[in-house]
Protein: ABC transporter domain-containing protein
Amino acid sequence: MYRSAVCCSNTCSTILAPFWDYSGRRVPFPSSRSWGLCSSGRRILCACTAPPRNLRDELASMERNGLNITESLGAVIDAKDGTDVLIECRDVHKSFGEKQVLRGVSFKIRHGEAVGIIGPSGTGKSTILKIMAGLLAPDKGEVLICGRKRCGLVDDDGIAGLRIGLVFQSAALFDSLTVRENVGFQLYENSRMQRDKIAELVTENLAAVGLKGVEDRMPSELSGGMKKRVALARSIIYDNTKEEIEPEVLLYDEPTAGLDPIASTVVEDLIRSVHLKGEKSTRKLGKIASYVVVTHQHSTINRAVDRLLFLYEGRIVWEGMTHEFGTSTNPIVKQFASGSLDGPIRY
Ligand SMILES: Nc1ncnc2c1ncn2[C@@H]1O[C@H](COP(=O)(O)OP(=O)(O)OP(=O)(O)O)[C@@H](O)[C@H]1O
Structure:
């Protein structure tokens, strides 16, 4: 019997702490950090999910009101009443000890958007992703998910409607589980799907990220790029026997860091393709409704995102479309885009 200390959305399974593997062997916790996060011992399905809100009904109502639902996910719904806003950060502050990291961050992520968060190192990009995912709580300000205030990791327990998944920079696979067990983890644990069906789905999702025949390998037998693709497969797999598929916002923390230029292109295109897939294939609401990418890489900025938020000294100091980034006259953005040592950003 498989058990876990806690459980959350598929893409956040890095914080899960398994006790036994699927064949009944006891396995060690993946990391002390995982255990620390999960110390309550509760089944937390909400770590990456949001308050209840029937987005399908809302979109149907938008349609009735003459607002177009996106034909392609590249086109963002801009509903005047704000029903297209999936995540909103309002005046978010966060400190670690004496260090003030976020000093009033506000932005919205709308349905259909592909947003990049960029900025110098240590400026709080990963911190804001973790706050959106519910893994960290802001000290001040709030995060709204589909218009409802996110209370926190434990308090949001049992909520459903929009899933928020975080794909960690390190891929964060369970070292003691096979690729199949890693990718299918959430389904083995939370769905009623037959094991052979899950295995089929795992193979399908691995193929979607360009990996074949690696199901029985251990993470230690994969290259860095392959691990990132396995993490991506784990983030996009879902129970396809369910009638209602909750839309999901995926948050990627430096998905191409450490990859060679070609491997980066593969991952960037995969990020785009899983975004478009649900919408194009069903002509209904896509599964990956929107995504946010934290990155330092120019290729990822240019290839994988449409809109950028520039975070500097704990605030959003510039936002615009990707094509506006290179021509901005904002001195901070200009210096960052050119990599110059001269300018307001000091190291
Ligand atoms: N759990 C934590 N405890 C203490 N300090 C932390 C913690 N998490 C982040 N920090 C600090 O907060 C600051 C922002 O970190 P964060 O990882 O969000 O930056 P970042 O913009 O993503 O950086 P990079 O681009 O280098 O990855 C850093 O100074 C970091 O050391």
About this structure: The domain at 82-162+248-346 is CATH 3.40.50.300 (Rossmann fold). The CA atoms of residues 145 and 345 lie 33 Å apart. The two ends are 52 Å apart (CA to CA).
